[in-house]
Amino acid sequence: MKREMWKETPFSVKLLLTTSFMMNLGFYALIPYLTLYLTGSIGWTLAMAGLVLSVRQFSQQGFAFLGGVMADAFGYKGAMVLGMAVRAVGFAMFAFCTETWHFFIAAILSGLGGALFDPAGSAAFAILTPDSIRKEVFAFRNVLGNIAVVGSQIVGTALSAVDFTYLSLFAGAIFGVNALVSFFFLSPISATNTRHSIWESMFTVIRDKRFVRFTFILMGYYYLNMQVFLTIPLLVEHVTHSKTSVGIVLSAMSLFVILFQMKVTQWLEGYPHRLTLIGIGTLVMGVGLFLFTFADSLWMLLIDVFLFALGTMIAVPNLVDVVPRFAPKDLVGAYYGFNGYSIAIGGSLGQVAGGWVYDVGLKLQAAWLPWTICLAVGLLVAWMLHLMEQDTFKLGNDLTKIAQP
After folding, report:
1. What is the DSSP letter of 266?
2. DSSP sequence for 318-353
3. What is the per-residue pLDDT across 20-37, written as a single tens digit (0 to 9) for each?
4. What is the DSSP string of 108-174?
5. 20 to 30 A Cα–Cα from 327, which one of 153, 248, 304, 346?
6. Residue-averaged pLDDT of the chain
7. How is residue 187 annotated by DSSP?
8. Between the CA of residue 49 and those of 28, 46, 177, 327, what are the distances in Å?
């Protein structure tokens, strides 16, 4: 981020950036290695491991709409602090799971915590950040998130090599510390929704057909995005026969974003068609995943991962910036929460169906199958968002000006 933009960034936003960085560190240290732990030490199938991950994902995003509405009504700081504390308990609980149902309880608690802090945090970013630098702040948050991912792979690899218990407790501690920091140092962020009841807020979002359509299309984006947590680590280990390579590849993906995200954002700054950019980014991600079909070495994996990362660099800043442009200013949390259904459904499909298709591909000796589906999904999302962009302009709407008073 440019120095002058950093000076324009309020202290509260800087603190939110710090907590976002720490939460990414804890989350990405645990989740990729949870898959390997469940399929390795516990002996589950990939599909079963994917089910646990999808339960965590769906319990988070499935309740995020309600969490966002409540944050709009009762205040963002309280929702964030409570959510971080609940996730701290859920992540730490993985250290003590011995039965199948224990893992599902831990996954549900982890998800419910996210349902509270995620829409509240995103709304707080959007509300507290000046409009003139919001897109750059979101891009910088993506950079910080990926710096955290690099650090998380070092921590995750080291702790999982000793004992998964330590990794789980570390991840839980990160969220616990963030809850305390936010409670003591983050200024109260007052509720913005003083006009509507919780039910009125929810119905207002549901009646916004354009936004519902946008949320539905994004399910395809998150189908592709969730492969980072499931099929990509398995493929890397299969190709290289090394768990260390999993950390190298995931760290490289983050390093690419760290090095190029701000440049990509600057290059695309003058391009006004935000929905089309999200579609292009998703398509590039699909191409990167499809090329995994031909990956037979660590270098090939890194090239494919670069394309995947480039797609996220194009899509993510526009994706998070578009949501508050749909939303009335007093319902930003509700809109972010409802948008979470794209992650809930698309992410769950990416983890359950993605894992199942990967297993089927291995049985049928059709290694191309899961990655070809990813390419088809990327093409479909790009086409649907392009059509939506055209429809938006036909109706005389412009997403650069759509934010409502």
Report:
1. H
2. HHHHHHHHHSBGGGHHHHHHHHHHHHHHHHHHHHHH
3. 999 999 998 998 789 888
4. HHHHHHHHHHHHHHHHHHHHHS-GGGHHHHHHHHHHHHHHHHHHHHHHHHHHHHH-HHHHHHHHHHH
5. 346
6. 87
7. P
8. 16, 5, 28, 36
CA atoms in the 13 A half-sphere facing the CB of 323: 28
Chain segment 347-398, per-residue pLDDT in tens: 878 877 887 888 888 888 888 999 999 999 999 999 999 999 888 665 555 5
* C-alpha closest to that of 143 among 17, 14, 296, 13: 17
The tokens for 94 are 């993985």
Contacts of 385 (CB under 8 A, 6+ apart): 217, 275, 276, 278, 279, 282
pTM comes to 0.77
Round to whole Å and give the CA distance between 142 and 132. Answer: 18
DSSP state letter for 188: P
Half-sphere exposure of 32 (CA within 13 A, CB side): 34
CA distance 66 to 78: 15
**Buried/exposed code over 129-151 (b: 16+ C-beta within 10 A; e: otherwise):** beeebbbbbbbbbbbbbbbbbbb
pLDDT score of 405: 34
Note the pLDDT tens digit of each residue in 179-205.
999 999 998 876 665 566 777 888 889
Cα dihedral across residues 85, 86, 87, 88: positive or negative: positive
Q: Residue 401 has what DSSP assignment?
A: S
Helix (H, G, I), strand (E, B) or coil at 375: helix
The tokens for 342 are 């794209």
**Dihedrals phi, psi of 209, to nearest 5 degrees:** -60, -35
Which domains, and CATH codes, for the chain?
A: 3-189+196-394 (1.20.1250.20)
Show contacts of 199-203: CB within 8 Å, 24+ apart.
201/69, 201/72, 201/73, 201/331, 201/334, 202/65, 202/66, 202/69, 202/334
List Cα–Cα distances, 280 to 168, 220, 304, 320, in angstroms. 36, 13, 16, 15
Q: How far is CA 32 from CA 164, 168, 303, in A?
A: 12, 12, 20
